[in-house]
Amino acid sequence: MPEVNYDDKNWFHIKNGRAMVSLGSLNQYKTCPYSCAFCYVQDGFIPYAKKNINEIVDFLIRHREKYDIIYVSGDTDSFAKPRTQTGITLLQSISENINCDLLFTTRTIFSSEDLQQLKKVVNTLKNKNKDLFACISITRFSDEVSYLEPYPIPSPQARIDTIKHLHNIGAVTVLALRPFLPIVKVTDYLSILNICKDYIDIALGEAFYFQKDGKIEKRVFPNGIPNKVETALKKVHMDFNENNKEWEIWESEFIESTIRNFCDKNNVIFSMHSADAINNYKSQKNLQILL
Do you find a cis peptide bond into 47, omega within 30 degrees of 0? Predict the structure, then answer.
């Protein structure tokens, strides 16, 4: 690997046993190929550094003792066109050079050629007794709120099909119903789950973060924040990013409990936190091995 700058404290995020990396901003004008209405990067989340694959892998090797799993996610979609192949190559390089579980998150869809390459990553990790967690994010199903995930984000059904393909190549499949939004009906989430319940291992929820009078608020609530949402808001600081902003946060016990009940009945692991879900999956996997 080429020599790199070791002053890398603020390149990426490592905390609570997770190393979170990405390909960085798409270019100097745009963070991500997609533009989700609820993406917290647009309101103060500190984006990661833009580094090449060798630099990212070198960073991970030098900080290996600080984490148990690597996330390729966080501030951008590293797998959306035009960077799909680069994102897959990053996964390949990580799997070949580091003995560690690996998770990636995307809203894109993969070609048959892409899936064959990802299958090699799955097999590389399995040979090390590690897993590739393939996380596909779908926040809505109804066309009523399609503005939340604007073009060129693939349709919910196309992403559901992608989860099935990833399941078929042996990846641990993760459905990210994230974040839970007050303008998305719980029936939307149940529709998504019902279609793909037989080929997902994990479902994830998440609270909704936004800045008051910020870009997220204006895009998610084009007609203003409903009173029932306003009265339920709390203020928090993010524990997964170094920004010092105080964020408004909305949570729904009703949505969470409804989704949890569905998942329990259909043998799908559910959690509001990815770390808990992954630990649960690995515990169940180890128990099956012992039995």
Answer: no
pTM of the complete model beyond 0.85: yes
Q: How confident is the model at residue 10 (pLDDT cuts 50, 70, 90)?
A: confident
- Residue 13's DSSP bridge partners are 20
The candidate with the shortest Cα–Cα distance to 23, out of 100, 108, 123, is 108
Strands 208-210 and 247-250: antiparallel
The tokens describing 73, both together, are 């996610």
In whole angstroms, how far apart are CA 4 and each of 14, 80, 149, 261?
A: 19, 27, 37, 49
Q: Which two structure tokens, joined as six digits, stand for 60?
A: 């991970």
Give the Cα-Cα-Cα angle 240, 246, 250 (nearest 5 degrees): 80
Residue type, 24: G
234-236 sheet: strands from edge to edge? 208-210, 247-250, 234-236
- Using a 10 angstrom Cβ sphere, with 0-12 exposed, 13-18 middle and 19 or more buried, the burial of residue 3 is exposed
Angle formed by the axes of helices 156-168 and 112-126, to 10°? 40
CA distance 205 to 253: 11
pLDDT in tens, 125-163: 999 999 999 999 999 999 999 999 999 999 999 999 999
